[in-house]
Design a protein that fits this description.
The protein is an alpha/beta fold. The strands form six sheets. A five-stranded parallel sheet has the order 2-1-3-4-5, sandwiched between helices. A hairpin with a 4-residue loop joins strand 11 and strand 12 (322-326). Helix content is 43%, strand content 22%. The chain starts with 5 loop residues before the first strand and ends in a 5-residue tail after the last helix.
Length: 807
C-alpha cells in the first residue's frame, strides 16, 4: 500500500504557497499543510508532525534559518527532512549555511515546477522509505558473527573445551560482561563496522549521538547515520587491502548531526592481515570547536584593537624584559622600519642616558618595572628617544600580566609632544587674553582723559585769535593727544577689542600701497624688494590694519639692520594640509594667502623669539620702543583668523610668515565721501549723564557754547530723576554707557517707559564689541566713541536731533 506523505509548506507569499500545493497535489501528494512564517510553521510542525518541510528563507516574524535551527534542536522534530525553496541567494554562503544547519537541499527560485518536482522527488522517496522501513532486533548474518565481539570469537574458539573448563566459562562470561560494561561506559561514540559499512556493534554513547537505541543502530550503514547519505561519503576511508592496516584520523563537521567530530578508524585484520572490518571512534568536539572559534574571534578583535591604537603598545618578556612585540603605532612613534626592527632594540636604546630629574634611565626603569610587578600596574612620565636620537616626552602605563604560567609586561606609551605644544600655546593665549583685558581697561580710562584734553584744547583754540602766540602751544598739545590716541588704538588692536572694517581686498594692492613708504621708513642703506604673485590674491581684511602690520614689521626690521642689508615682502597662494597642521600645531585645512617678510638683520636667539609677541616686551633701549609693535601685529592677524610664525637665528636674519584665509569674492571699489561741513548749534535742551566730572563739564561747555541748554546727571539713577523733573523740556539724552548704580542702558530703558520716542546718544571709551557685550546694546543704538573732538560731538548731536524732521 502506498504511503501518503504529509508535507508542510512555509512561505510568506500566498501565490507561491498555492503553486507549490497544486504541484504536490498534481503529483499525488494530497496531505499538504501551509504556514506563512517560521513561527507558524514551527507550531504546525510540533502539532502535525509532517514528513517533509519546504520553506522559504526570508520571512517575517521568524526567517527560514531560525526556523531550521528550531526544528533541528527539537528532539521530536530533528529527523524531519527540511528543504529550502527561496529567491534569497547571493552566493554559496546561503547554501553552506543551510546545509551546515541540517537542511537536505537549497533550491533557488524561480524554478520550473516540473524541474522542482524532480529535485524533490528523490527526497520524497527517501521519506517514504523511512516510513515503510522496519528494523528487526537481530539482523546479522553468519559472515558478520566474527565481528560481533571479541568475546564471541573467544567463546567460539573455546566451545569444545567448555565441558572441561566450566570454571573458565564463568570467567569468560565475566570478562564478556566486563568488556560490554567497559565498551558501553566509553563516553564517546564507538561502533564496529564490517568492510561494507554495516554497523555490527554500537556502544551506549551512540544512542545520544544518533537519537536511536543500540539495536536500532545495528545493521544500519554508518554513512546513513553520520552523513544522511545513501552511499559512502567521499571523505570516508576505503576499508580494503589498500588501507594496509593503517588507522585513519580526521576532524569533520557532520551537517546532518550539526556537530563537529574527531574521527578515528582502526582497521580489524584477520590472521592473514586482510581487512575484515573497522572500529569507528567519534568524539564530539563541537564545544571545543566553538571555543577555538571564539578564541580566534577574540584574537582577531584583539589584533584589530592592538593595531588601531594611536598609542604605542608593546610587550616585554622576562628575564631581561626585552621587547617581544609591538603595534604599528610603535613603529611610527620610534621611527623604525617595522616591528621586526623594533624588537632588536632594548629599552635602554630608546631612552636618553638620564631622565629630566637627573637619574640614570637604566636605574630608574628597573624601579618602574619592580613597582609594576608589585602593584600590578604603574603609570608614570618618561623621556624616550627615537631611533634617530630625537628625545620626546611621554606617559607610560606598565601592566604586569600572567598567562598560562608565563609572565610579561604590557607597555602603553603616549607621545606628549603635541600635547606639550598645545599646553604652551594655551598658556600663551591665556597670558595674552589677560593682558588684552588689562589693555582694554587701560584704553577706556585713557580715552576719557584724552577726551577731556582734546575737548578743552579745541575750546581754547576756538576762543583764541589766529595770530595769538599761545595757539601754537595748544596745537602742539593736540598733536601729542593725537599720538596718544593712536597709541590707544594700538592697545585695542593688540587686545583685539578694536572695531575692524573688513572687506574683500587684493593683498597685492595692500603691499603695493605700503611699498610707497618703505624707502622713507627703511632708509637709503637698506634694499627694499617686493615679490608678488602675478594673479590677485583676495582676502577678507581691513586694509588699513594690514598696512599697519607691514609697517610695524618694516620698522622692526629697520632696527635689526644697523649697517645696511635687505628687506623683502613676498606673496603667494599655499595650501595647508593635515601634515602642516600636525607639524606646526595650528591651522585649518584649506587655501591661504602667505605673506613672507624677511630681513638680513642680526636675528634673535630662541628665548627672544618665544617672547616677541608679548605686549611691552622689547629688546630696544628705553625710549626707543613701546614693546607694542609686534603685539599689535599678533592681535591684527588673529582678528583676521590668520596665523603668524617667525624663524630666526642670531646673525642669520629673521623671517615672518603670515597665513590669511583666501576668499573668492573681489574687492569693491571705494567711493569718495564728501568733506564734513562745520557743526551747527541749536536751542534744544540736552540731559548729559556722565560720572566723570571733567568730561561732564567738558560736554556742558561744548554744548552751551553753541546755544544748547544742558541738564547734568552724575549717574544712571540721577539721570532718571532729572528726566522725571524735566521730561517736558528735554529733547535729547547724551549718556555714558558704563556708570555706577545704574548704567546708561538701564537708565534709558526706564526713561523710555515714560517717553518712548526720546532721542538718545550713548558715549563710551570701551571698544564697540565690549560695549555691546557688557550692556546688551542693540545694533541700532546711536553711539559716539571717546576720544572725540568737540566738532564730532556737536555734529552727532545735531544729526540725531534733526532725524525725522524732514520726513
Amino acid at each position: 500500500m502506498k504511503f501518503e506523505l504529509k508535507i508542510l509548506i512555509v512561505e510568506d507569499n500566498a501565490d507561491d504557497r498555492k503553486l507549490l500545493r497544486y504541484n504536490f497535489e498534481n503529483h499525488g501528494c494530497k496531505n499538504v499543510i501551509e504556514a506563512q512564517d517560521g513561527q507558524e510553521g514551527l507550531d504546525l510542525a510540533k502539532s502535525q508532525k509532517p514528513d517533509l518541510i519546504i520553506s522559504d528563507a526570508l520571512m517575517p516574524v521568524m526567517d527560514g534559518f531560525q526556523f531550521l535551527r528550531a526544528i533541528k534542536t527539537d528532539e521530536n522534530l530533528r529527523s524531519i527532512p527540511f528543504v529550502f525553496y527561496s529567491a534569497t541567494y547571493t552566493g554559496y554562503k546561503e547554501v553552506e549555511l543551510a546545509i551546515s544547519l541540517g537542511a537536505e537541499a537549497f533550491i533557488v527560485k524561480p524554478k520550473d515546477l516540473n524541474e522542482l518536482w524532480e529535485k524533490l522527488n528523490s527526497i520524497i522517496k527517501e521519506c517514504n522509505l523511512r516510513k515503510e522501513k522496519t528494523f528487526p532486533a537481530e539482523q546479522i548474518d553468519n559472515d558478520h558473527e566474527y565481528f560481533r565481539s571479541y568475546s564471541n570469537i573467544v567463546a567460539t574458539k573455546l566451545e569444545e573445551k567448555v565441558r572441561e573448563l566450566e570454571n573458565a566459562k564463568a570467567v569468560i562470561e565475566a570478562k564478556e560482561q566486563e568488556w560490554q560494561t567497559t565498551f558501553n561506559s566509553i563516553g564517546d561514540c564507538v561502533t564496529i563496522h564490517d568492510k561494507n559499512f554495516n554497523i555490527i556493534l554500537a556502544n551506549k554513547s551512540c544512542e545520544k549521538v544518533f537519537g536511536a537505541s543500540q539495536n536500532e543502530i545495528r545493521s544500519r550503514k554508518c554513512f546513513e547515520l553520520f552523513h544522511g547519505k545513501n552511499e559512502p561519503h567521499e571523505a570516508c576511508p576505503k576499508i580494503n587491502t589498500e588501507q594496509k592496516g593503517k588507522p585513519f584520523e580526521a576532524e569533520r563537521f557532520e551537517s546532518r548531526l550539526n556537530r563537529w567530530f574527531s574521527i578515528a578508524c582502526f582497521p580489524l585484520l584477520d590472521k592473514n592481515g586482510v581487512v575484515r572490518g573497522v572500529v569507528h571512534y567519534a568524539k564530539d568536539i563541537t564545544e571545543r570547536k566553538k571555543a577555538e572559534a571564539n578564541l580566534r574571534e577574540i584574537d582577531k578583535k584583539f589584533r584589530v584593537l592592538f593595531e588601531s591604537s594611536r598609542d604605542a603598545l608593546m610587550t616585554l618578556g622576562p628575564p631581561s624584559w626585552e621587547f617581544t612585540s609591538c603595534n604599528q603605532a610603535t613603529v611610527g612613534m620610534f621611527r623604525v622600519k617595522n616591528d621586526e626592527e623594533f624588537i632588536t632594540y632594548g629599552p635602554e636604546d630608546l631612552s636618553p642616558e638620564r631622565q629630566p630629574d637627573g637619574r640614570a634611565s637604566d636605574e630608574k626603569s628597573k624601579e618602574m618595572i619592580e613597582t609594576a610587578m608589585l602593584k600590578g600596574s604603574h603609570f608614570f612620565e618618561w623621556t624616550h628617544k627615537r631611533s634617530d636620537g630625537e628625545e620626546f616626552p611621554a606617559t607610560v602605563l606598565l601592566t604586569h600580566t600572567e598567562l598560562e604560567g608565563k609572565q610579561f609586561l604590557q607597555a602603553t606609551v603616549r607621545d606628549l609632544t603635541e600635547q606639550r605644544k598645545l599646553e604652551a600655546q594655551y598658556l600663551q593665549s591665556q597670558k595674552m587674553e589677560v593682558v588684552g583685558q588689562l589693555a582694554g581697561g587701560i584704553a577706556h580710562d585713557f580715552n576719557n582723559i584724552l577726551t577731556a584734553i582734546t575737548g578743552y584744547g579745541h575750546i581754547a583754540l576756538m576762543k583764541l585769535e589766529k595770530d595769538d602766540p599761545i595757539r601754537l602751544n595748544i596745537e602742539h598739545m593736540l598733536e601729542g593727544v593725537d599720538r596718544a590716541a593712536y597709541l590707544t588704538k594700538d592697545i585695542l588692536l593688540f587686545s583685539r577689542k578694536h572695531i575692524s572694517n573688513k572687506t574683500p581686498v587684493n593683498l597685492n594692492e595692500v603691499v603695493r600701497q605700503v611699498e610707497k613708504f618703505l624707502k622713507r621708513v627703511m632708509g637709503e642703506d637698506i634694499e627694499c624688494k617686493t615679490v608678488l604673485q602675478e594673479r590677485p590674491i583676495h582676502v577678507h581684511a581691513d586694509s588699513h590694519h594690514l598696512e599697519q602690520v607691514l609697517m610695524n614689521l618694516a620698522t622692526n626690521a629697520r632696527d635689526a639692520i644697523p649697517k645696511g642689508g635687505a628687506f623683502t615682502i613676498a606673496t603667494e597662494k599655499v595650501t595647508l594640509n593635515q601634515g602642516f597642521i600636525s607639524a606646526h600645531g595650528y591651522g585649518k585645512p584649506g587655501e591661504y594667502a602667505l605673506i613672507t617678510i624677511s630681513d638680513t638683520g642680526i636675528g634673535m636667539d630662541e628665548e627672544t623669539r618665544k617672547r616677541i609677541f608679548e605686549p611691552f616686551f622689547t629688546t630696544k633701549e628705553v625710549g626707543k620702543g613701546t614693546g607694542l609693535g609686534l603685539a599689535v601685529v599678533y592681535g591684527i592677524i588673529k582678528e583676521h583668523d590668520g596665523y603668524i610664525n617667525v624663524y630666526s637665528e642670531p646673525g642669520n636674519g629673521t623671517t615672518f610668515r603670515i597665513y590669511l584665509p583666501i576668499i573668492a569674492s573681489k574687492p569693491r571699489k571705494e567711493t569718495k565721501t564728501h568733506q564734513e561741513e562745520a557743526s551747527e548749534g541749536g536751542t534744544e535742551t540736552i540731559l548729559v549723564a556722565e560720572d566723570d566730572e571733567s568730561l561732564r563739564n567738558l560736554s556742558k561747555a561744548v554744548l552751551t557754547e553753541l546755544g544748547y541748554t544742558v541738564i547734568e546727571a552724575v549717574d544712571g539713577e540721577d539721570a532718571v530723576r532729572k528726566f522725571m523733573e524735566n521730561k517736558d523740556r528735554i529733547h535729547l539724552i547724551l549718556s555714558d554707557l558704563i556708570m555706577p548704580k545704574m548704567n546708561g542702558k538701564e537708565a534709558c530703558d526706564e526713561i523710555r517707559k515714560i517717553k518712548p520716542d526720546i532721542k538718545i546718544i550713548f558715549m563710551s571709551g570701551y571698544a564697540p564689541d565690549i560695549v555691546r557685550q557688557k550692556v546688551l546694546l542693540e545694533d541700532s543704538a546711536q553711539m559716539i566713541f571717546k576720544p572725540m573732538s568737540p566738532n564730532e560731538l556737536l555734529k552727532k548731536v545735531r544729526n540725531v536731533l534733526d532725524e525725522g524732521k524732514h520726513n
